[in-house]
Amino acid sequence: QLQACGGGLVQAGDSLRLSCAASGRTFSSYAMGWFRRAPGKEREFVAGIISSSSSTYYADSVKGRFIISRDNAKNTVYLQMNSLKPEDTAVYHCAAGRRLTEADMTYWGKGTLVTVSS
After folding, report:
1. From CA 79, how far away is CA 46, in angstroms rounded?
2. 45-56: per-residue pLDDT in tens?
3. Strand, coil or helix: what is 72?
């Protein structure tokens, strides 16, 4: 199971750090990703990291502002979000799977709401 936390209400330009703690099994061999669903929009990929942490991937909209990382010893993945914009407002979900595509994500956590005011 995955549980995301760290969301909240912030102003544009602020930072937030999301955490996703895994329990019930070890996710160190899984690719981990963050996805988000903004109001009235489809869910979209935000960032992903493979099991060895050697490669990370980002949506163009967050590249240079967000950083994904993982601590396999703690079974936790993080999303550091900097220079937040109102368009980053969404429910953020973490997920785990064999590949970094939404269709290949096997495990999904409940989301955490991030609201960015202008």
Report:
1. 10
2. 999 999 877 799
3. coil
> What's the residue count for the chain?
118
What string of DSSP letters covers the chain? -EEEE--EEEETT--EEEEEEE-SS--TTSEEEEEEE-TTS-EEEEEEE-TTSS-EEE-TTTTTTEEEEEETTTTEEEEEE-S--GGG-EEEEEEEESSSSGGGEEEEPBPEEEEEE-
Q: Which residues pair with 68 in a beta bridge?
A: 79
Rounded Cα gap, residues 95 and 35, in angstroms: 8
pLDDT in tens, 13-22: 999 999 999 8
99/95 Cα distance (integer angstroms):
11
- In angstroms, the CA 69 to CA 32 distance is 9
Q: Which DSSP letter does residue 42 get?
A: -
Quick one: average pLDDT of 75-100? 96
Contacts of 59 (CB under 8 A, 6+ apart): 44, 45, 46, 47
